[in-house]
Amino acid sequence: MKLYPYQQDAARWLYSRYRAALWSGVGSGKTSVLLHMAYRRLCRLYVRSVLVIAPLAVAKNVWELQAQEWPELANLTFSKILGTPKQRLAAMRRNVDIYVVNYEVLHWLVQNWPEDWPVDMVILDESPRIGVHNSVRFNGTKTHKKENDDGTYTKIPPTPGLRHIIGKIPYVYLLSGTPLPNGYPKIWSQIYLLDQGARLGKNITAFRRKFMYQYGRESYQWRMETGAEEEIKKRLQDLCYTVPDSVVARYLPKLSVQDIWVTLPRKVRCIYDAMEGDFFAEVNGTEITAVNAGAKSSKLHQIVQGAVYDENKKIIPVHDEKLDVLDDLVASLEGYNVLIVYEFKHDLERLLAWQKAPVLNNKLSEKKFNKLVAEWNAKKHPKMYVHPQSVGHGLNIQFGGHHIIMFGLTWDLEYYIQIIGRLCRNKQAATTVFLHRILARDTIDVLIREVLRGKEITQDGFKRAFLKYKKKRTLAA
After folding, report:
1. How many domains are contained in the chain?
2. Which residue among 175, 304, 390, 432 has the highest number of C-beta atoms inside a 10 angstrom radius?
3. What is the sign of the dihedral through the CA atoms of 118, 48, 99 and 420?
4. CA–CA distance, 305 with 342 (Å, rounded to integer)
5. How far apart are CA 64 and CA 432, in angstroms?
6. CA angle at residue 7 from 459 to 414, to 5 degrees?
7. Same domain, 171 and 64
């Protein structure tokens, strides 16, 4: 097996730099690129060991398995810093080539590893997960007081975050197919890990003063200044590498999107309109109230899906329109395996009541998770339920089918793109992957679809900027 030509180009570019970002589409083989580069540095003794920081499902199930697919990488040794604190400490003490940890325990790792980390290279897989500037995993914690049982207070000293450690690491690389899942505000913390503020400012205040302005009644919200996005792209051009989507597309199946529309019954439309206009609706004798605009948005989304939570988290059924469409759709796809994506927990409960099928999520043990993935890839399950937040990154489940049904849309572009990328990726046997989205007319579903499209346009423009720079350098050479 060999890396594709575009992967080889990316590996060479990254290898020539101590710190850089690889922005490449979902399913383009970013993990294989970094594994080969890490292997090369390990063999040449440039690094003692490597730390990979990744989403939980990816940390559990992707990096080590991916290495085993390549004969030249099969001898790499791994230690997964996961599980209970005792298990994590044991994993940290092993002498291996590559340590893997998930973002949720990153702050714990910073506190428990020696100040002189035993790694010389850090890879942040799906780097937007590092969070915003004040997240604990990025910034640590400030000095604060903890109340004791007797009413007195104990002063808790500050703890460091990754930003305080990363400057000591010689090699740092960011990976993502969706570097701007929700716009530009999160980009500062990602880039800081590469250059410690040289390009976008030493802190978030400097970044905002340079590129943003405040608006709103209380001036709590921020927007990008005119021309700021272009200036950011220009400053990052020597730090980021993008593989053109058109190049990756040669090696991937086509994606065909089909929107299937349902019309809410008159009674349900009245409930929806009442919630939209008055922040209040009565559903089957139960009063449903939204305390603010954010809560109203969530309630509207739930109503469209077919059920809604009351103030006690009890599920109140509303309608079965989407379930009826799903039933017809699955029947029409008989003979093809389908991945069914749900949004709310009550979606899953209703789906399981409709038809039993396995659920792939992070609640499964590593052994059961890998077993279910293997069974799906062997086409032993005609249906499988997934939530995009649980299995949206890095998993190779493209062997089990080529039909995705979105029973509900997510607001988050990153999760949306990543879940599609579980089937629409390298080694997919089908020439076309079909995405079926079940949407309700004249509802919040339409808004979510448009918001996702707007975010996608912003992100595509961000990645294209580095392609222009790459072409200029090639011509200059």
Report:
1. 3
2. 304
3. positive
4. 10
5. 29
6. 25
7. yes
> Are 230 and 349 within one domain?
no
- Identify whether residues 85 and 186 lie together within a single domain: yes
Say whether both 283 and 349 belong to one domain.
no
Q: 314 is in which domain, residue-wise?
A: 265-318
Domain-terminating residue out of 318, 345, 363 = 318
Full pLDDT tens readout for the chain, 477 residues: 688 899 999 999 999 999 999 988 777 889 999 999 999 999 998 999 999 999 887 888 789 988 988 999 989 999 999 989 999 999 999 999 999 999 999 999 998 887 788 999 999 998 988 877 888 999 988 876 777 777 777 777 888 889 999 999 999 999 988 788 677 877 899 999 999 999 999 999 999 999 998 887 666 778 888 999 899 989 998 999 988 778 888 888 899 999 999 999 999 999 999 999 998 888 888 888 888 888 899 999 999 999 999 888 899 999 999 999 999 999 999 889 999 999 999 999 999 999 999 999 878 887 888 899 899 999 999 999 999 887 756 678 899 999 999 999 998 888 888 888 888 887 888 999 999 999 999 999 999 999 888 877 677 776 666 655 444 444 444
Same domain, 215 and 362: no
What SS3 state is found at 395? Answer: coil
Does the residue 152 lie in any domain? no
One domain, residues 270 and 349: no
Under DSSP, is residue 20 helix (H, G, I), strand (E, B) or coil? strand
Q: Are 419 and 299 contained in the same domain?
A: no
Comparing C-alpha atoms, which of 61, 15, 20 is closest to residue 38? Answer: 15
What is the C-alpha to C-alpha distance for residues 119 and 99, in angstroms, rounded to an integer? 9
Residue 464 forms part of a structural domain = no
Where does 355-396 have alpha helices with state H?
A: 366-377, 388-391
- Among 318, 344, 359, identify where a domain stops: 318
Q: What is the DSSP letter of 185?
A: T
